[in-house]
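Reopening this one. Same input as before:
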Amino acid sequence: MTEEYDLPSNDKFEALRDLAVVLAKQNEEKVKSLTRTLVLCGSTQVGKTTMLNHLLDRNVPARPTLAIEYSFGRKLNRDGVKDTCNFWELGGGTTFSAVIPQLIYSPLNERRVVSVAFILDLSKPSQLWQTFDKLIKVVSSSLKQYGEENPDHFNSLYAKRMSKFLSDHPNHPDKDCIEISIIRLHIIGAKYDEFQNFDPEKRKVICRTLRTAALIYGSSLHFTSTTENALIKRGKEVLHYAGFEFSPPSTINTDHNAPLSIPPGYDTLKDIGAVSSRSLIAIKTELERYFTSHFPQVEEESSEIEDPSAHASFKEPQLDFILKRKRREII
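Same output, byte for byte:
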């Protein structure tokens, strides 16, 4: 609909110019760039850095993440404006999970969009559950604390997320069993190239477990690989959507004989068949019991944290010389 404006008769040209400036500023506000945050956490040596390199088109060899690493990327949005995403990648499995709350609080306090991607090693089911369980509990408790400290913002975000879910899935049979999060969550099963060679029954148990977890936490679920071209592309699409909320993966698959790809809410407890409980707390307990009865969990392999100052990628001749001299003085 065309809007009409009354122009001063004495100076129509200047009025039109002023009006054009106002409309231009209004349009600029509508298409202004956004800054988002994506936290990548999960299993050790699972390919998080490699996936991020693919997304950002960085043709560099991946090196182990020592603790936490930061990078950023920019992509054009639908309005032709470049959005920015801050990527925080946690190394060491669950070792540095204590920093997750701050990575979530800071952008939320600035009213920015936050997402978390749990990248799990499908080839190591004996560590898969305890890794995911610890990380999801840290994220959940962080969001709960944020809600207690910022109830108005939390309730506003929750209402929007709940409204979106009910709009997309108005008749979902399990809506009372789903824990809607105020941030987007993504579960990524990596190393599918190794997982696909597992016994079919083992694959079924792992797939059922991750499908149930994704459903009750309102998360998407996608299987990827860093060695197969189709799944490399899938991983890039998932991180692109997680980081920029643009062009979600179009494939949907719930068959455990192929790489899973399930958006939030496109699954049901009945179709999955892993648990019979109908309350969220009972489902979580039953799901853990279901998975660990098939795959008893073992502690993550402890690895000695490398001294960053000794890493070839962080060499600084002048600083290294000063550090070496100071160490000699101390000794």
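So the earlier flakiness isn't reproducible anymore. For the record, The two ends are 79 Å apart (CA to CA).
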